Amino acid sequence: MRNIFLGSAAAFLAAATGAQAADMMTDVKAPREPVYRCDITGFIELPGTDICFKVGGYARLVVAGAEDQWQNLDPSSGFYLVRAIVPDGHSTDDSFIMYGQGRVNFDARTSTEYGTVRAFVELQATDNDTRSGGSAILRHAFVQFGNWTFGKTWSTFLHLDSSATTTDPYVIVGDNFMRRNQIRYTQSFGSGWSVSVAIEDQNYNFPTATTAAGVWLPFFAPAANDRNEGPDVVANIRVQGDWGNAQLSGAIHNNQFRDAGWTDSEIGWAALFGLVINTPTIGEGDFFSFKAIYTDGASQYNQDLIGTNNVVWGDCTPFLVGFTDCILDTVQSWSLLANFTHNWTPTFASTIGGGYGRVEFPKTAFAPFQPLSGFAVDTKVDLWQVYLDFAWTPVPRTTFQFDITYGNIDFNGSRLGVNLTPFPAVIAQDDGAFSAAFQVTRSF
After folding, report:
1. CB–CB of 95/84 below 8 Å?
2. What is the pTM of this model?
3. Is Ion transport tagged as a keyword (predicted)?
4. Which of 25, 69, 102, 298 has its CA 20 to 30 A from that of 6?
5. Looking at the domain assignment, is residue 1 inside a domain?
C-alpha cells in the first residue's frame, strides 16, 4: 500500500509539472504585444496598427430647482431657457429634479501623407426616473481627413470659447449650441489665423413659420416647412494668440414654406462675433469673454433665445378679392453675452456673467385701432439673464459646481396670438424667476 501511495503521488507531481511546462511553452510561443504611447498626450497605439486611440467621457449627477414660473425641467425635453418662463401661477409648485448623466467618446487618429486622419464618436445618456433608461444620443460622429471634416459636430458658426460657464441645465441668453451634419474645409495661414468654410444641414431643428395676426392671417392653413434642398453656407475667420482669440462667423439659409395653396421662399442670414481676452494680471488663468449674435430669417443660429421661428406667414393681399399667401417678413433677433472667470486658488474659480436679447416678429400682434398697419403690429420680446457660478476641483478631473441664475422675459405689452410659438399665448407683462443647480462631474 505504501508503494502504491508513493507511486500515485509521484505520478501526480509529474503530471502537474508537465502541465505547467506546457503552459510556459504556450506563453513563449504567443507573447503579448507591448502597448506603446503615441506622440499625442493621452493616446496609446493600438497593438498591431498605426492607430493612436483614446477613450474619454464623464459620469455626472445634477440636482436643480426653480421657481414655479420656470418650466421645462425635464432634462430630456429642454434646459432652463428664459423663453420658457410663464406668469406666476401658471405652474402649481416650485420644481426640483435630479438626474444622472454619462458620456463616452472614442478618438482614433493616424498620421498619413495627407495629414492626420481622424475618427471621433461621442454618445451621451441622461436618466432621472427609471431603474435603467436614458437611451444614448449621438452628439458627435465625424471623420477628419487632413483639412476636411465630414459628419456631425459643432457648427462652423459657433464660438464655443465665449460660451457661458454653467452647470448642465443652463443655456444663458445670448449663447447657442448646434451640432450639425456638415462638410467643412479649414485652412490655417500661420500666426494664429485660420478660415473655415462649410455646407451644413439646412433642415437643422426644422425651422418654422409664425402665423400673422389681424387681417394678415393666411387665407388657407398655416405654413409648413417645405424643406429647402439647398444646404446652409457657413464660414468663419479666426485668430488666436497668447492674448486670447477672436472669431467672426456668418451663415446663409434659404427659407421655403407652403400652405394648402401657395409656396414662397426667402433668404435668411446670421452673423456672430466672439472674443476671449486672457487677464493674467488679475489672476492666473482668468479671462473675459464676449459674444454677439444677429439673425434675420435664420433663427436657428440663435435658437436658445427664440427657438427656430424664421419667417412670418400670412395673406399678402388682405384687401383684395384674390387671396395669396406668402412670407410677409423675416423674424429678426440679436443678443449679447459677457462673462468673467476668476481663479481664486488653483482649485477654486468663480464666473459671473449675463446676457440680453431681443426678438421681433412682424405683424404678429393684433391691433384693431391701427388700421393703417393692417390691424397688426410687430411683436417685440426682450429677454435677459444673469448668473453666478462656483467651481471647486479638489483633484484633477473631478469638479463640484454650483450656480444660481435669474431670468426675465418682457413681452412689452403685446397680446401674442396662439400661433406664435414657442411663447405662451395672451401674455401682456414681464415675468422673471430664480433657479439654482448643483452638479458633480468626474471625467476620464
Report:
1. no
2. 0.86
3. yes
4. 25
5. no
